[in-house]
Inverse folding.
């Protein structure tokens, strides 16, 4: 957003960051093996190409370095305010501005853009007795690099995208690894490989080649959305994935534990070349009964089995459908976003919310994806926000918000489309669903369809209030 503002000649803005560096999820996640599960060509800004990726799937450290390089390339440093956490944001109707309270003092703004990301608040389940555990406890997003795992008995809770990456990295060095698995995942081969010197040189010297490959990859991955919209397609694909599982896991008992009983795509599809092989090693045990309690030096499962461990690592994801900042943002009538949403986030085009003037959410409700790069979604949102800013400037407008009926119609359309997708029909319980049982995380279509719908700002969808004369 900051880059696009500068490119449009807008300089009067600040980026508030509660940490001491840029990077978000790629700054915070330093666990072994952390990498993107979308190809590097797509996981970079279209307006800030990077021909220097070292692998097909970028390691976290490279993505973090890329984001820091973008700060330098586009001269964003003067706009950054680190260690500025938002304590509260309130719409001041008398002044038609946002009043922000931060850890470094108050600020006001004509426009407020929460860009906090969906994977920013780690979640550790409230396991009975966890507070009594005497060993090391850490979430994958709060990894402690100084803590040595060599020879330890490690319990891993969770089998999501992060666990699939760090388990193969720590398995060879730990003494024993116990994986507490609630639900097995559908795991596809990753096919990662280094990008050679010649290919990098081609990307640098012939940018058109890089662009063509990116576009081809975008179209190919967008086609995968067809399977999420029509679950029978994914049921056909399951046969190939199950054959892959049989070829990697010879033990029928372990293979049965790792075989999902729901339609592929209902939960996030994972990609890895080394996760399944790691689970077949002699020092790994996959435990499927649920955890009953945690004791000082062990975990007890519902079958009564006792599992001694000295380290607990949680790969249990993030607060995605309960945006924590929503509890601190108050709109025109004084209610918070969380109070208005009542457990189910809703926004027009995933970007703006009726009752919250001049508020634009980046990666808001129903903008997540299960098949391709979320940056494609965000870039469409950026253009929408810029269109809104141009409209306000041209008409000396002070504030705009979506027409309630327009927002309601959009949400109704989304829910109708969602009802036939694999996320609703696949027979699983996933983090895509919010507290009300509604899928408020994902977009039920292609990124191309989202861009067509969102990129252009249509003022007829919004209510605009005139600027008031103030001191």
């Amino acid at each position: 957003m900051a880059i696009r503002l500068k490119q449009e000649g807008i300089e009067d803005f600040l980026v508030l960051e509660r940490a001491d560096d840029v990077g978000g999820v790629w700054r915070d996640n330093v666990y072994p093996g952390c990498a993107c599960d979308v190809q590097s060509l797509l996981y970079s800004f279209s307006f800030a190409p990077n021909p220097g990726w070292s692998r097909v799937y970028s390691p976290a450290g490279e993505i973090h370095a890329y984001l820091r390089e973008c700060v330098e390339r586009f001269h964003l440093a003067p706009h950054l305010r680190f260690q500025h956490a938002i304590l509260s944001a309130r719409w001041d109707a008398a002044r038609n501005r946002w009043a922000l309270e931060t850890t470094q003092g108050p600020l006001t703004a004509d426009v407020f853009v929460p860009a906090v990301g969906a994977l920013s608040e780690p979640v550790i389940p409230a396991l009975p007795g966890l507070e009594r555990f005497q060993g090391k406890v850490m979430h994958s997003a709060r990894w402690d690099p100084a803590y040595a795992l060599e020879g330890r008995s490690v319990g891993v809770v969770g089998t999501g995208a992060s666990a699939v990456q760090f388990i193969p990295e720590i398995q060879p060095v730990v003494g024993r690894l116990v994986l507490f698995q609630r639900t097995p995942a559908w795991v596809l081969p990753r096919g990662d490989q280094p990008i050679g010197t010649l290919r990098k040189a081609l990307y640098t010297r012939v940018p058109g080649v890089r662009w063509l490959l990116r576009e081809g990859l975008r179209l190919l991955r967008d086609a995968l959305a067809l399977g999420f919209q029509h679950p029978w397609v994914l049921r056909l694909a399951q046969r190939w994935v199950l054959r892959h599982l049989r070829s990697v896991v010879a033990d029928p008992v372990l293979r049965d534990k790792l075989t999902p009983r729901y339609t592929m795509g209902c939960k996030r599809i994972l990609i890895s070349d080394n996760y399944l092989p790691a689970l077949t090693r002699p020092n790994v045990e996959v435990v499927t009964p649920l955890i009953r309690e945690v004791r000082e030096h062990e975990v007890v499962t519902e079958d009564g089995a006792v599992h001694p461990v000295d380290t607990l690592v949680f790969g249990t994801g993030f607060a995605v459908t309960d945006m924590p900042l929503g509890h601190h943002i108050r709109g025109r009538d004084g209610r918070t976003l969380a109070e208005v949403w009542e457990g189910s986030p809703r926004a027009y085009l995933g970007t703006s919310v009726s009752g919250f003037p001049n508020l634009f959410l980046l990666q808001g409700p129903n903008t997540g994806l299960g098949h391709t790069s979320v940056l494609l979604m965000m870039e469409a949102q950026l253009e929408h926000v810029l269109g809104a800013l141009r409209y306000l400037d041209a008409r000396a407008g002070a504030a705009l918000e979506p027409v309630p009926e327009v927002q309601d119609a959009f949400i109704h359309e989304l829910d109708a489309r969602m009802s036939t997708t694999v996320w609703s029909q696949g027979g699983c319980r996933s983090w895509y669903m919010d507290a009300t049982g509604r899928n408020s995380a994902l977009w039920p279509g292609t990124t191309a369809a989202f861009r067509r719908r969102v990129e252009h700002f249509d003022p007829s969808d919004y209510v605009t209030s005139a600027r008031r004369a103030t001191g």
About this structure: The longest strand covers residues 86-92. Residues 375-394 form the longest helix (20 residues).
